[in-house]
């Protein structure tokens, strides 16, 4: 059932992007490339997707996406500040119209009282001419590692669709 949902969301996302002649990129940490995989599962996705970034470590977030080391130290990798920076970095590097970024604690270890297992932050960047608009979200998902990651991919695709439909 989950594969069917992911496939439906990916097809709808691709259809919207094609209709509006828009492109997308992603910067992923805890999802490890799952969002890019689902997007590129759709034949013809090269019309709107040309690259994505898997930046699992803080070093990768900084080097590949330009995330500030100050932000990483002050807020941590799993923070709305960092995912906004990840999304902007991906958007610029891919010269895309839309970007989604994800960083979270999928478990089973790594959680804390402030950021328990299941904490996931999402960043979205949208190009509007010379301007870039960002938005971030915090979610607390339940379940095992795979479930947290799956819910993160679904949330990302659904939120992208909402943003593309609005614009």
Radius of gyration: 15 Å
Secondary-structure element string: HEHEHHHEEEH
Secondary structure tally: strands:
5
What's the main sheet like?
Answer: 5 strands, mixed
Biggest sheet strand order reads 2-1-3-4-5
What's the pLDDT, averaged over the residues? 96
Determine the number of helices (DSSP H or I, runs of at least 4 residues). 6
As residue ranges, the low-confidence spans are: none
Question: Helical proportion?
Answer: 40-55%
Distance between the termini: 30 Å
Overall structural class, as computed from helix and strand content, comes to alpha/beta
- Shape designation: globular
Strand percentage lies at 15-25%
Structure description:
This protein has helices at 2-20, 34-40, 58-65, 69-75, 80-94, 145-166; strands at residues 24-28, 53-54, 98-104, 119-128, 131-140. With 167 residues, the chain is an alpha/beta fold. It has a five-stranded mixed β-sheet, sandwiched between helices. Strand 1, helix 2 and strand 2 form a beta-alpha-beta unit. Helix 1 (2-20) packs parallel to helix 6 (145-166). The longest helix has 22 residues, at 145-166.
